[in-house]
Amino acid sequence: MASGVSDAWGLLTEAQRATSRAVIARESAQRDEALAASPLPDDPPNEAEIEAWLVGARRAML
Asked: What is the pLDDT of residues 19-62, one digit of tens each?
C-alpha cells in the first residue's frame, strides 16, 4: 500500500479494519462478476474510432 494509505490503515481499530476488508472483498467479487458477465469485448475491434469519438466529445465540452 502507498504510505498514506498504510498510515491511515493503522489508525483504524481492528473491527474497522475487519469491516473494511469485508467491504473490499465484496466489492472486488461484484466487480469480477460484472466483468465476467459483460457483453463488451476485452479488445474492441473499433478502438481507434471510439478514441476519436471520445476526444471529440470531450473537446466539444470545453
From this structure: 999 999 999 999 999 999 999 988 889 999 999 999 999 999 99
Cα distance between residue 33 and residue 50, in whole Å = 25
Q: Tell me the C-alpha to C-alpha distance, in Å, between residue 58 and each of 47, 49, 52.
A: 16, 14, 10
Question: Can you say whether the dihedral through the CA atoms of 34, 38, 41, 46 is positive or negative?
Answer: negative
The domain spans of the chain are 3-60
User: Helix, strand, or coil here: 38?
Assistant: coil
Distance CA 24, CA 30 (A): 10
